[in-house]
Write a structure and sequence with these properties.
Elements: E1 4-5, E2 14-15, H1 16-24, H2 35-48, E3 51-52, H3 66-74, H4 82-95, E4 99-109, E5 112-113, E6 119-126, E7 129-133, E8 146-147, E9 153-156, E10 159-167, E11 170-177, E12 180-188, H5 194-206, E13 217-222, E14 225-230, E15 233-238, E16 241-246, H6 250-261
Antiparallel strand pairs: 1-2, 3-13, 4-5, 4-6, 4-12, 6-7, 7-8, 9-10, 10-11, 11-12, 13-14, 14-15, 15-16
InterPro entries: Arylamine_N-AcTrfase (IPR001447), Papain-like_cys_pep_sf (IPR038765)
Pfam families: Acetyltransf_2
GO molecular function: acetyltransferase activity
């Protein structure tokens, strides 16, 4: 998987896993480092790989090593969390020559930012500008990179986003819900050590205060809306039309994961599920 592809004359060497990656996301491997190339990779990455926080319920230790992440996402027919999805995206972009910075952000829930910075975000340079890249936020995550510039706004299908600079090195990403701008997360431009991201992933997977410890969550955003699974409730939005499905068994859950998120698991793979998950009255 990590062996080097023999290059044709005049072309740079590329690792074989990078070839596999571009086959998986159905994109021709680009040459260059433009913002257009960055945007094409970003949306293709999101379209191909779901946001998937199932590891804890499958008895799987969340992978942080890049070789393990590639195995899970490429041949394991699974998705991943922010550190896996953005970690892979960062490795891809760096292999193509992009300058990538990994930072941690604090996600805003119920109007309040967490005091824990546990969500990985990427800052990428292209065409003499900095861009926010995030392939691992989930349902309301942006499909294309956002320009790291105060008040920069971007309409992406039915979604609209805005970047706000709060103070010296603190930024906020916002989502427009109806007529109101809602904070998604805040991050600081600072240097982080690799151990910081390992701790963040550990928190997301195992810490009692993490929303992923007791909730089964998957998501796949799209320009038309997207799909979001929270425990036994699947919400699908397409062209502004919202549909909801309540899942009644593990077998139904497996079918939903395959149909809506391209995630392949068996019923027997689940070693634990949130208590009372199927007690919802239809």
């Amino acid at each position: 998987m990590d062996s080097i592809l023999v290059a044709a004359e005049g072309k740079p060497l590329r690792p074989l896993w990078l070839v596999d990656y571009f086959e998986m996301i159905k994109l021709v491997m680009p040459r260059g480092r433009s913002s257009k190339i960055l945007a094409d990779i970003h949306i293709a990455h999101i379209n191909a790989i779901a946001y998937d926080m199932l590891d804890v319920f499958l008895g799987v230790t969340p992978a942080f090593d890049m070789a393990d992440i590639r195995k899970k996402l490429f041949s394991g027919q699974r998705g991943g969390g922010c550190s896996q999805l953005n970690g892979l995206l960062a490795a891809v972009l760096e292999s193509l020559g992009f300058n990538v910075r990994r930072v941690l952000s604090s996600v805003v829930r119920e109007g309040r930012a967490s005091k824990f910075f546990t969500h990985m975000v990427l800052l990428v340079s292209a065409d003499n500008e900095d861009w926010v890249c995030d392939a691992g936020f989930g349902y309301r995550g942006f499909l294309y990179p956002l320009r790291l510039q105060h008040n920069a706004q971007d309409i992406q299908g039915i979604h609209e986003y805005r970047v706000q600079k709060k103070q010296d090195a603190t930024w906020c990403i916002q989502y427009k819900r109806s007529a109101l701008w809602v904070d998604m997360y805040v991050f600081k431009e600072k240097l982080y050590e690799s151990e910081d991201f390992v701790m963040a992933q550990f928190f997301n997977s195992y810490f009692p205060l993490s929303p992923f410890k007791a909730n089964l969550i998957c998501a796949k955003p799209s320009l038309e809306g997207g799909n979001y699974l929270l425990n036994t409730v699947l919400v699908s939005v397409k062209g502004g039309v919202r549909a909801q499905l309540v899942i009644g068994s593990v077998d139904e859950l497996v079918d939903v994961l395959a149909q809506y998120f391209l995630i392949k698991v068996d019923s027997a793979d689940f070693v634990a599920l949130p208590v009372g998950i199927f007690d919802v009255v239809r």
